[in-house]
Write a structure and sequence with these properties.
The complex is a heterodimer. Chain A is mainly alpha-helical. Chain A is built from 14 helices and no strands. Chain A has helices at about 1-30, 35-40, 45-55, 60-75, 85-120, 125-140, 145-160, 170-200, 205-210, 215-245, 245-250, 260-265, 270-300, 300-305. Chain B has helices spanning about 45-55, 80-90, 100-105, 110-120, 125-140, 155-170, 185-205, 215-220, 240-245, 250-255, 295-300, and strands at about 5-15, 20-30, 35-40, 65-70, 75, 95, 175-180, 205-210, 225-230, 230-235, 305-310, 310-315. An 8-stranded mixed β-sheet of chain B has the order 6-7-8-3-9-10-12-11, with helices on both faces. A 4-stranded antiparallel β-sheet of chain B has the order 2-1-4-5, with helices on one face. Chain B is an alpha/beta fold. The chains are: A mainly alpha, B alpha/beta. The interface of A and B includes residues 203, 204, 221 and 321 of A.
């Protein structure tokens, strides 16, 4: 297993190099010059020339790229044009906020999506199933910014229960994470439902029932572990996306997160900031995928056996008990 | 011997918006303690649905038990609550499933899966249950130490043995085996049948064997019920049915077994197909394929006629002979 994880981490290197090349080229070839945005209309030609020289913008594309990769390998992602702060520092100042938001949103989507998904699969075509189908459809189609605004109107303006902006106390966390969470809960719910429906039609479910097992245990112990894999993929990918910052929601709730930071960077062609931000997002996404793959192996022994050689260890009849979890 | 199971006029339909599939119609069978009964019929005849009906596991919706009684040791199982049924399933009546490849949960160890049924019905510690699970595995001929392995690490025949171990773990009084050998190759079939037969004798378990293999029935069963389109068309002792088959369908089944002493270029099948269970004819369901069918057969449901003691046939040809 460790060998496999190591291999996967090594495979990250070409992926990240590719991401850097792509983003770097995009920033380089897109129209507009950073010095025009940063220095403003009043700047003289000399000022602009000095700016270009300072940031190495007069070098040819290839040299600039190689210089960037060299620095990046040493952990130096460059200096932000606007704040004159190291980009890495800027990003990691914002990262905890984004991580917290991503985690909370994912928790909402798991709790809401998985429970309702299971219930509506077990009670297929019941009223609850139909109502949640409708809600899921709304959840997917309503844009997050609108949902966010509506929640602000209801909970902050009308009821005055929760703050409308910022991200300092737990009260601030509820609305934005709920906004994003319900949005992804809708897809999780549908995925859980269809995957569960498939699982509860399997023969081993009939076997479990014929043992005299209760329906609750049949669903939670026998069906869920088989049905959860596609849902894990979905949740994992969602979480990875959220680690890149959920720009729109961050703007609605004025949260100082990664998404907000990168958007600001794009506006003024702040290349080091954008490149650094996207690199971090790509890394987060790749690590998330790796984590999901490892979790697969944990959940499904058939996948595990592809990575781990089955240990030929026969249980002893007297000493079996410790082996059981 | 006392009656352990008596099914009276069991009728199970699958009701959907478009159609009603009449899977099981007025099936009646009796099983004595320690006895084996073979339920023989082709695919789709309603054999598995009958078994599920006994265990109360007919998927609902769309399955509905329309009528009849399933009397097990004097109790009508159809009237019991879900909680009472759960105490019977796996404990008193257990089932071996057709396809061992899918009957075991792929993400749980086989030991866990055998232990589950023991822990549900017997108040024992986890360690004790595991020990019993390992004993069960050894009884069906698999090393008990492999209890921490997963189903995919076993071959098909071994998986079927695990399924049998699960079914027998609580010493049930009645074992329902739903085509236990269909998915296995012939050498393993013989082993599995021997195993079931031996365990049955050891624990004096009654057996309801569902199959379409007349050879298997001859080897294991005391009584035979031939099922066609959800109805029992012929019912009796093994000897009376094998030596003196009456119903044209039974004759057709025996006729379609290839005779190795003669060199035949073509097998001798029963012509035609079983009628669509959602659109059963008014009269005898077999009339369309029956060589002796008359107009009357198509109009009227034949009654059950006892042609000799303990041997009954559902066919108009024997109506006058019967008592």
């Amino acid at each position: 297993m460790i060998k496999y994880i190591g291999k996967r981490i090594l495979m990250l290197v070409p992926v990240l190099l590719g991401v850097v090349l792509l983003v770097f080229s995009m920033m380089y070839f897109s129209p507009g010059n950073a010095e025009d945005y940063i220095l403003g209309d009043m700047a003289t030609e000399e000022d602009k020339e000095a700016f270009r020289e300072e940031h190495g913008l007069n070098e040819p594309f290839v040299i600039q790229y190689i210089n960037y990769v060299k620095d990046a390998l040493r952990g130096d992602l460059g200096i932000s044009y606007t704040t004159k702060q190291p980009v890495a520092e800027e990003i990691f100042k914002r990262f905890p906020t984004t991580f917290k938001l991503a985690l909370l949103s994912t928790l909402w989507s798991i709790v809401i999506g998985i429970t309702i998904g299971i219930i509506s699969a077990v009670r297929q075509y019941s009223i609850l199933d139909n109502v949640t189908r409708l809600i899921a459809m709304l959840g997917v189609s309503i844009p997050t910014f609108w949902e966010g605004l509506m929640l602000i109107i209801l909970f902050s303006v009308q009821l005055a229960l929760l703050p409308a902006s910022g991200f300092t106390t737990w009260k601030h966390w509820i609305l934005p994470s709920f906004t994003i969470g319900t949005h992804s809960a809708a897809t999780v719910m549908r995925m859980m439902r269809s995957s569960m429906l498939e699982a509860i039609r399997q023969d081993y479910i009939t076997t479990a029932k014929s043992k005299g097992q209760t329906n609750f245990v049949v669903v939670t112990k026998h069906a869920l572990r088989n049905a959860i894999i596609p849902v894990m993929t979905l949740v994992g990918v969602n979480f990875g996306k959220l680690l890149g910052g959920s720009a729109i929601t961050e703007i609605v709730f004025s949260i100082p997160g990664l998404g907000n930071l990168i958007i600001d960077g794009i506006k003024v062609k702040n290349a080091p900031l954008v490149q650094g931000g996207i690199l971090v997002i790509a890394l987060a996404m790749a690590l998330c995928n790796l984590l999901i793959d490892v979790l697969y192996a944990y959940v499904d022994p058939r996948i595990r056996s592809q990575y781990v050689k089955p240990k030929v260890k026969l249980a002893q009849k007297s000493a079996t008990t410790e082996e059981e979890k | 011997m006392s009656k352990i199971l008596e099914i009276k006029d069991l009728t199970i339909h699958y009701v959907t918006d478009d159609e009603v599939v009449k899977a099981v119609n007025d099936i009646s069978i009796t099983l004595e303690e320690g006895e084996s009964l073979g339920l023989v019929g082709e695919t789709g005849a309603g054999k598995t649905t009958t078994a599920m009906g006994i265990l109360g596991l007919v998927p609902n919706p769309p399955g509905k038990i329309i009528g009849g009684e399933v009397i097990y040791k004097g109790k009508n199982l159809l009237k019991l609550s879900e909680a009472e049924m759960r105490k019977i399933r796996g404990h008193e009546i257990s089932m071996i499933f057709q396809d061992p490849m899918t009957a075991l949960n792929p993400v749980l160890t086989v030991g866990d899966q055998i232990m589950e049924v023991i822990r549900l019905h017997q108040k024992v510690s986890k360690a004790e249950a595991m020990k019993r699970a390992m004993d069960m595995m050894e009884m069906v001929g698999i090393e008990g130490g492999r209890c921490n392995e997963y189903p995919h690490q076993f071959s098909g025949g071994m998986k079927q043995r695990i399924v049998i171990a699960i079914a027998l773990a609580c010493n049930p009084s009645l074992l329902i085996a739903d085509e236990p050998t269909t998915a296995l190759d012939v050498t393993i079939q013989a082993q599995v049948l021997d195993l079931i037969d031996n365990l049955k004798k050891k624990f004096n378990t009654s057996l309801l064997l569902i199959t379409h293999d007349l050879g298997v029935v001859a080897e294991v069963c005391d009584k035979v019920a031939i099922v066609y389109a959800g109805r029992i068309v012929e019912y009796g002792n093994l000897e009376s049915i094998y030596n003196n088959p009456k119903h044209p369908y039974t004759n057709g089944l025996f006729g379609s077994i290839p005779d190795f002493s003669k060199k035949a270029h073509r097998l001798n099948p029963i012509r035609g197909l079983m009628p669509d269970p959602s659109n059963l004819p008014e009269g005898c369901a077999f009339a369309e394929r029956c060589p002796n069918a008359t107009d009357e057969c198509r109009k009227r449901q034949p009654p059950v006629v006892e042609v000799e003691p303990g041997h009954s046939v559902r066919c108009l040809m024997f109506e006058k002979e019967g008592r």
